[in-house]
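Dear H.,

Thanks for agreeing to be a second pair of eyes. The structure we're designing against is below in token form, covering all 126 positions.
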């Protein structure tokens, strides 16, 4: 189970890479392994401001559909369009090619509410 130390995490299994006031968001290695083969990533919130803990999209796997929850409040400024043709990138490279959205954060202090790698490991029992 890969859990990069430099990222932040949510209890809902999203990861957050912080680059100033823009964050990149995806789902964790644990989440993709629990879901199984990802066949579709749906994000219809591009150019919208989404509140923390609200749904920003969904991931469809062979056996289930799972909502994606916004870790911080902000405007969705980019969607990883490669996932339209290659949703399996979420399985093969969840922290790289499998990123989902980029968000311009409204309130950077919300980042303090996210888990560090150790906190996330405790949640998943790693």
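And this is the sequence the design step returned. I haven't edited it by hand at all.
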């Amino acid at each position: 189970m890969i859990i990069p130390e430099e990222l932040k995490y949510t209890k809902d299994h999203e990861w957050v890479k912080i680059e100033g006031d823009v964050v990149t968001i995806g789902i964790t290695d644990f989440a993709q392994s629990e879901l199984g083969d990802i066949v579709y990533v749906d994000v219809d919130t591009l150019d919208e401001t989404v509140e923390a803990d609200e749904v920003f999209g969904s991931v469809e796997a062979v056996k289930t559909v799972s909502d994606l929850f916004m870790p911080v409040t902000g405007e969705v400024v980019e969607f990883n369009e490669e996932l339209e043709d290659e949703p399996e990138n979420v399985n093969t490279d969840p922290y790289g090619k499998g990123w989902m959205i980029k968000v311009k954060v409204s309130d950077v202090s919300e980042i303090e509410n996210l888990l560090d790698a150790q906190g996330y490991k405790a949640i998943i029992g790693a």
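Two observations from my side: The domain at 8-108 is CATH 2.40.50.100 (OB fold (Dihydrolipoamide Acetyltransferase, E2P)). The mean pLDDT is 97.

Warmly,
E.
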